[in-house]
Amino acid sequence: MEAGGPSSGRRRRRRRVGEVHGGGTDRISDLPDDVLGEIISLLPTKEGARTQILASRWRHLWRSAPLNLDFRGLVNREDELAGVVSRILSSHQGPGRRFCTPRRPISYGADTLDAWLRSPAVANLEELYLCYPTAYHLPVQLLSESISRFSTTLCGATITSCQLPDVLQGLQFPNLKQLTLEEVRISECSLQHMIAGCPVLECLMIHESFGFSCVRINSVSLRSISVRAQYYWRDGPEFKQLEIDNAPSLESLLQLVFRSHLHVSVNFTPKLESLYCHSYSPAKIMFGSTVIQGAKIYSLTTAVHSIKILAVDMGILSLDTVIDLMKCFPSLEKLYIQTSNSGPNNLWLRKHKKLIRCHDIRLKKIVFEWYWGIRSQINFVTFFVLNASALDSMTLRIQDRDYNEEFLAEHRRKLQLENRASRGARFQFITNMCVRNIREIKDIHDFNLPDPFAC
User: Fold this and answer.
1) 86-113, pLDDT tens digit by residue?
2) Mapped to the 3 state alphabet, what secondary structure does the chain carry?
3) What is the pLDDT of residue 29?
4) N-terminal to C-terminal alpha carbon distance within the chain
5) Interior CA angle at 219 toward 218 and 223, to 5°?
6) Rounded distance, CA 159 to CA 156, Å?
7) CA separation for the pair 23, 414 (Å, rounded)
8) What's the average model confidence in pLDDT over 244-265?
9) Most confident of 6-20, 64-78, 364-378
């Protein structure tokens, strides 16, 4: 064929499409369709759809890629949402990867939602984020049929502002690894059956849900549990007790209760490493006969050696309280402190002389949220500077107005950093957030981390 023939022209056009700024080659477009489809499915819905205009090579990919349908940010006007979602579902070939409804008031009815969930485009759905904020009026039949349809394919489910029916008791979720129930009404029997029907469940989040008084955990797969019990009245039983009887894989327990009297009993959790305590909370957590209420140890009969990461939200900064927690958790390696008030002077030289001689402080990392350099904070921090011989790093968050060489030099001197027990320890003052705001944890991915408290 001649050099200037039709085939040669197509090759030249293909090269022009594949070229990128700087004379390089667009190697992404050379990937197989299924790989490009996976890449597209990771993008927000609007951006995924826009890949159709990149080049003719991409034009058909979005409609055949696994569908990531997230209502959030999809339209600017609420009254346009139903039409846009319907057009996407009617034109998409599937399969379904993710279906996420918004948390704001809705502009579509239950019948419309039912039709969407029955669409072939969401067949074999893997992730479901379902919120219907109309005072739990989502029809029970719709909800039960929808969840039943996806029960064998779901890997992650977040149910918000709904009433879960008792017909779920017979369902099995063989692939479900992440489950979030937020502001959900569900009976105790249904909840227990639902958890038991998830043999590979790894992350469980129960936030401000009701209709049950006790949750019992017997799971060999669970790695993370987050609970936030309601503290205001709702129709039905109040969540009062969490019993973790057997959870050999559990690594993280976030007890996000501030005004609830929830009792948490922890029995067999040999891998539990991360724990959160709030000093003002009336909730109790019991490790066998050892009782912790808020952040205070009321009965220390058995030390918990598995805990290595601890976050403490303290209304009043107290070195005594932290030292008691260190005695309870002798293998502690990372300590995150959040505080809003200065409290006592935190003098320690005479008071804790025996502890310093006998107790091995294994802390490697200390993070202190809101250090403004008053006497009680200086004494608190200096205790660890002079006695934590295994320390690798200490981070202190200060106010923007204090971030100047004069303030930093003054407090390096006051904290006696030159006399630190760990010669290799690094000390830094920062102005941005240094401890994750535990109160803001809402998504299950927020705490499913090796260290859930690190920014």
Assistant:
1) 988 988 876 889 999 877 667 777 788 8
2) CCCCCHHHHHHHHHHHHHECCCCCECCHHHCCHHHHHHHHHCCCHHHHHHHHHCCHHHCCHHHHCCEEEECCCCCCCHHHHHHHHHHHHHHCCCCEEEEECCCCCCCCCHHHHHHHHCCHHHCCCCEEEEECCCCCCCCHHHHHHHHHHHCCCCCEEEEECCECCHHHHHCCCCCCCEEEEECCECCHHHHHHHHHCCCCCCEEEEECCECCCEEEEECCCCCEEEEECCCCCCCCCCCCEEEEEECCCCCEEEECCCCCCCEEEEEECCCCCEEEEECCCCCEEEECCEEEECCEEEECCCCCCCCCEEEEEEEECCHHHHHHHHHHCCCCCEEEEEEEECCCCCCCCCCCHHHHHHCCCCCCEEEEECCCCCHHHHHHHHHHHHHCCCCCEEEEECCHHHCCHHHHHHHHHHCCHHHCCCCCCEEEEECCCCECCHHHCCCHHHHCCCCCCEC
3) 77
4) 62
5) 125
6) 10
7) 57
8) 85
9) 364-378
Q: For residue 126, give the nearest of 164, 89, 99 by alpha carbon.
A: 99
Distance of CA 273 to the CA centre of its chain: 16
Other Cβ atoms within 10 Å of 119 Cβ, number: 19
**342: Cβ contacts below 8 Å, ≥ 6 apart:** 316, 317, 374, 375, 376, 377
Written as six digits, the tokens of 153 are 């394919």
The one-letter amino acid at 190: S
pLDDT in tens, 190-202: 999 999 999 999 9
The per-residue pLDDT for range 319-352, each reduced to its tens digit, is 888 988 998 999 999 999 988 777 677 777 666 6
